[in-house]
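hey so i finally got around to running the thing on that chain from the lab meeting. sorry it took forever, my laptop kept dying and i had to restart like 3 times. anyway pasting the input first so we r on the same page abt which one it is
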Amino acid sequence: MAVINRIAGLADEMTAWRRHIHENPELGRDCHQTAAFVVERLKEFGITDITTGWAESGVVAVIEGQGDGPTIGLRADMDALPILEETGLDYASKVPGKMHACGHDGHTAMLLGAAKYLSETRNFAGRAVLLFQPDEEGGGGGEVMVQEGVMDKYAIDEVYGIHNGPGLPTGMIGTAPGPLMAAADSFYIDIQGSGGHGAEPHETVDPVVAAVSIVQAFQTIVSRNNDAQKRLVISVTQINTGTASNIIPDTARICGTVRCFDAEVRDMVERRMGEIVAGQAASFGVEAVLDYDRGYPPTVNDVDKARFAAEVARDVVGADQVEGNARPIMAAEDFSYMLEARPGAYAFVGNGVEGATVHHPKYDFNDEIAPVGASFLARLVEKAAPL
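ok and heres what got predicted. didnt touch it at all, straight out
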């Protein structure tokens, strides 16, 4: 088995769809133009069961198979990023400050390609439910769609999603049973001191030294509080304070991110951060408030569905192009909410080892992999719900 011939024949169409979406990026839940483009294509394919407005601009479409069978959900994200594109491509973003720098334009094109094929052939039992989701980049559109009842409304039994993978060989497919991507939490610490002249620190309550001490103490959470066999990243990404070299400021702010896979680790980090902030604040005589914001949960594949997805991938690209025990990564993904609601699996399709990675102003989706991703999605349905 290999890439489906009919889908390979759609390569030029998928490229055109993808590049149109790339030229017209939208952010967050404001993906209305993209959604309208998707709906227009779906109607051209003869699909009539279409609903809109999920998480404000999401689209859900149903393709009926032949006879009774399971309902298989396939998800693609549609939103872009607030980045000024620097690719210089003919189809570069026409919207200054907005760019498809994560390949969601490609994911949408791949699901459209799978939809066209499935609607033509209907070589499966049950139903395929296509989930075109907005607001993956930080807003949790996947969570909103689940909260709005998409899984129950369509009686979805299992759900699958894909993401392009820069750094992986072109067309290689990687997945793994269990955790594949990390939880993503954010923390914000506001420190209140009492500023003054830099020449008279004894007349102040300095928030800067308190901030530095808190940051240093946070490093011991990973090195001394966490089980070394459990992955954990704590990154302080901002320290904002001060206005001049000779002024001790009144306030300081610390921001950062926490990535892990284990619920107990997540709880431990939040608890220890609270203890450290309180202790350091007392030590330096400042007031400090920690805001720990739990973001996306870890993306955890169902063990059996991940193994099934790897088998399907081998049918599409060959065994030597599939990694069924891919190493988990510390990035996060809101498909995690859909996997909490239903068993399923997430996979990566190699975007190539050359070029910029995602979230970079020079990133570009590799159109060569669109037939691979579309074939993988279509085969998931055909293999999960055979006639």
